[in-house]
Specification:
2 domains, globular, seven-stranded parallel beta sheet, 9 helices, three-stranded antiparallel beta sheet
Length: 252
């Protein structure tokens, strides 16, 4: 197998670690090759990938992968999530200490982090940590605490105290809902104290959400929009939203 084929296979596997499933057409676009080439690569790695009905998945899911509740959301709006994270990644600088929130969007940002740039990444969810730990030259700090299967994350009072001792340059925050009047919300109570602690201590706060999260309210409010320095989203955002939001909305 050629070096180019091996590189494509590694890239495809990394993408599937984030999204769990990818359409053949999207895989071809990601790799910059034809759909036939992708199918040949997948067929050559039949012990790694499964191809069925136009979709590619990993044959053997990672520990912490298919077994938890996030799976029902991992394959939704993947293109929009990836785009939002690619925009957010522009704001990463060499030497930064970053915080990466939990959820199904932030893993795309973890995948986009550059290697060997003296970056330290702080996280508290398994699906983010297992991507970060494969990055060369990246320091990873995993917050401890009680495990919560609903977001595959660890969180308790000790996690909050650990955050308060860290000097975070930029925090990349996720959310389940963004409402111009009520604010920013999530579904899980155990995430709230972590998110609030990060917003109190980080020098720069960036909200990373795809356009489907706007005009949505989840049960747990954790921030007002003016607490963020900017919002990074995809190009499907309603342009009228920009005038209603208290911080810059970057979507292109």
């Amino acid at each position: 197998m050629s070096t180019k084929s091996l590189d494509r296979i590694e890239t495809l596997a990394r993408s599937l670690e984030v999204s769990n499933v990818i359409r053949l057409k999207d895989a071809a676009d990601l790799l910059g090759v034809s759909e036939m080439t992708v199918r040949r690569d997948v067929a050559a790695c039949e012990n790694t990938f499964t191809y069925l009905g136009g979709y590619i998945t990993l044959k053997s899911p990672m520990a912490g992968g298919l077994g938890y509740i996030l799976d029902r959301e991992r394959s939704e709006h993947t293109d929009l999530k990836r785009m939002a994270c690619q925009i957010a990644a522009r704001h990463i600088k060499p030497g930064d200490t970053l915080f990466l929130d939990c959820g199904t969007t932030i893993p795309y940002l973890a995948n986009a982090l550059p290697e060997n740039k003296d970056i330290t990444a702080v996280c508290y969810s398994i699906n983010v940590a297992e991507i970060l730990c494969k990055k060369r030259g990246l320091r990873v700090i995993m917050l401890g605490g009680m495990y919560h299967a609903s977001s595959a994350s660890f969180a308790d009072s000790n996690s909050v105290n650990a955050i308060l001792d860290l000097n975070i340059n930029t925090a990349f925050m996720s959310a389940g809902g963004v409402n111009t009047t009520r604010g920013v919300s999530c579904s899980n109570p155990h995430e709230v104290d972590i998110k609030k602690a990060v917003l109190r201590t980080a020098a720069n706060k960036i909200l990373v959400v795809d356009s489907t999260k706007f005009n949505v309210i989840k049960p747990m409010l954790f921030a007002k929009l003016d607490q963020f320095d900017m919002i990074c989203s995809d190009d499907q955002c309603d342009t009228a939203l920009a005038s209603q939001i208290a911080c810059p909305l970057i979507s292109a």
